[in-house]
Amino acid sequence: MFETDTNTEHLFAHHPIRQFVESSPAEIKSVQPGDTVLSALRVLAENDLGVVVVLDGERLVGVMSERDYARKVILAGRRSENTTVGEIMSREVVTTYLGAKFGDCMRLMNQHHIRHLPVLDGDRLVRVISIMDVLREAVAHHEKVIGELERERMTVFNAAY
């Protein structure tokens, strides 16, 4: 008979995002609202990013994505060297907090159709996680679980003989 485990942290969706953020710190690339779109594009290109956060001092005020650039600059016939980030950035930013679980983050990303999610500690931006970060963590977690199940199976199999 199996024991009932009431601790759900062994399930990937219940893993705290705090552990991921603290175990894999990443430098946050940012721009300011007054920067030109061209300079923000350089930050995106140099760092192989799809989104850059926009900070006013240390306060998150928006994000600028490749999609913002394509729709609000290129298709609008604007020039990236004459347009500021503040003019085209997305101001309604979906965020999460350090106490959130991976499942919460996945739900937010799916619900809002976003691939990048800023993580806040109070009002301070501590990380931007991407859907690729979530996918990598899920794969690593599932590989670990499969390995544990295989070891358990071999233990039971060997004990039976």
User: How is the biggest beta sheet arranged?
Assistant: 3 strands, mixed
| Content-based structural category | alpha/beta
Trace the largest sheet across and list its strands.
Answer: 1-2-3
Helix content percent band? 40-55%
| Number of continuous helical runs | 6
Alpha-carbon distance between the two ends: 20 Å
Weakly predicted, low-confidence segments: 1-9
Q: Please state the overall shape, judged from the principal axes of the Cα atoms.
A: elongated
Q: What's the β-strand tally?
A: 6
Mean pLDDT figure: 85
Q: How much beta, percentage-wise?
A: 15-25%
Looking at how many chains there are and whether they match, the oligomeric state comes to single chain
Report the C-alpha radius of gyration, rounded.
Answer: 21 Å
SSE order, as H and E? HEHEEHHEHEEH
What is the fold's blueprint, element by element?
Blueprint: H1 17-23, E1 30-31, H2 37-46, E2 51-56, E3 59-65, H3 66-74, H4 85-88, E4 96-97, H5 102-112, E5 116-121, E6 124-130, H6 131-160
Parallel strand pairs: 1-2, 4-5
Antiparallel strand pairs: 2-3, 5-6
